[in-house]
Amino acid sequence: MSTGNVSTRRRDNYRLYMVTWNVGTAEPPPDVDSLLQLDAQPPVDLYVIGLQEVNSNPLRFISDMMVEDSWSHMLMNTMAPRGYVKMTSVRMQGLLLLLFCKQAHVPFIRDIRTTYTRTGIFGYWGNKGGVSVRFSFYGHMLCFLNCHLAAHMNYALQRVDEFEYILDTQDFEEDTPHVLDHKVVFWFGDLNFRIADHGMHFLRSSINSERYNLLWQKDQLLMMKKKEAFLQEFDEGPLCFKPSYKFDRNGDTYDTSGKKRKPAWTDRILWRVKPKTLAPEDDDDSVSTLTDDGHEDYPIQVHQDNYTSNMSYGVSDHKPVFASFRLEVKTSRQKEGNTKYIIQIK
Q1: pTM for the full predicted model
Q2: DSSP for 234-249, written as a single string
Q3: Among 110, 163, 214, 256, which lies 20 to 30 A Cα-Cα from 138?
Q4: Per the CATH hierarchy, to which homologous superfamily does domain 5-345 belong?
Q5: pLDDT at position 36, please?
């Protein structure tokens, strides 16, 4: 018989690595080791890779339905020998989202669901929209949403509307039916927001001198965040890297074609931790306590360690953008009497 309960809490850290890349219908490069930083120490626990504009011409798309597409095949062949398992993937025409994890975590990833939303021509064509995967990771509900939104400078408001539409229409059913019901949401992809007003000379001179901060006030996504309350709930690391669009293929020179597209941070990675005020009172996963220094101590915390573009890949007119995170997950270890331990994920 138990004589009493003793409860202790600890936080476990897991490393998450995310990539977004508009591959411009190109075939995979021969090597993606540097893109995925597979030799990083400590090793990554979760990889989430979102691609846009995977080749989806009718014949190729039908072929990919029968056999795995070339990007998924290449990533599987690269990561499986390193001890990673592909847990799931979801594709909508050119949009592709893949989830890999270390084998040790497989038993603790549950309730995997995927869905997609079309926002292309009249809402029926899947060349634009969002694909997502949600799952429980050690008892915490995470959702990853890979989007490809409307292009061109003058469609910033349409991009926000499309994102709202995707959030409103995606439905996973069960306990967390909507994207924003999840404890943590990662929103990423070719969001297509541009840098407004500045001329080409000012853009290029600011980029060449690495004075990226001179461009932030005219970045359309940062501008929209000031106007739209729901966007303000999403965090993003500082844009201290070269804009990832638009490049001449097979090089690191910004667009020299007749169109001369302006450089922009079209490819982004943001995240949102569900605000405590939106959590039901009986939702244990959303309960926060106070730390010794008086700050709120949430059951899961997200810390970004790196956010940048990788300039070494030239198969597309976009450079891949990646971010690394630490997921700090609270667990409770409860001892009943002197006889046994009960592990509870909170």
Answers
A1: 0.88
A2: -B-----S---B-B-T
A3: 163
A4: Endonuclease/exonuclease/phosphatase (3.60.10.10)
A5: 97
